[in-house]
Design a protein that fits this description.
With about 130 residues, this protein is of the alpha+beta class. It is about 20% helix and about 40% strand. A six-stranded antiparallel β-sheet has the order 1-2-4-5-6-3. Pfam families: 4HBT.
Length: about 130
Amino acid sequence: MTADPAALLALMPFAVATGVELDRAAPGEVTGRLPWAPGRCTAGGVLHGGALMTLTDTVGAVCAFLNLPPGASTSTLASSTSLLRAVRGGTAHATARPLHVGRSTVVVLVEVTDDDGRPVASVTATQAVLGAPA
C-alpha cells in the first residue's frame, strides 16, 4: 500500500509551513526532503538543526501512522537525534523505516543525507499507538 504523500503532508500544517516535502509514503518506507533556504538557517548559512528535526519528525510520524491499526492515531513519545554533518546548500533527504511495530508503540529510524548521499543526521523516534481498538 502506498499512500498519497501530498494528502498526508496536508494533515501537518507546521511541516508544510516549514517547507518539508514528502516524496513517497508506504508502511515500509517514507521519504521526504527539505531544501536549503536562508530562512531555515542558523549562523554561517547552516541549515538549522531544528529544521532538520522537523523533517525527521514529519517523515517518522508518517511512517508510524502508516503502520497503525485502523482507527488508531499516534504521537511522538521520544526522539533521539544525532546531527552528523552541516547542510550549507542543496537539499536534506530523509528516509524513515519502522524498526518495531507493536501494540502500544512504533519505533522508527530516520536517516538524513545531503545531495551527495553523505550522512547528515540519524534519528530514532518512538511513537505511541493511541486509541487502538482492543
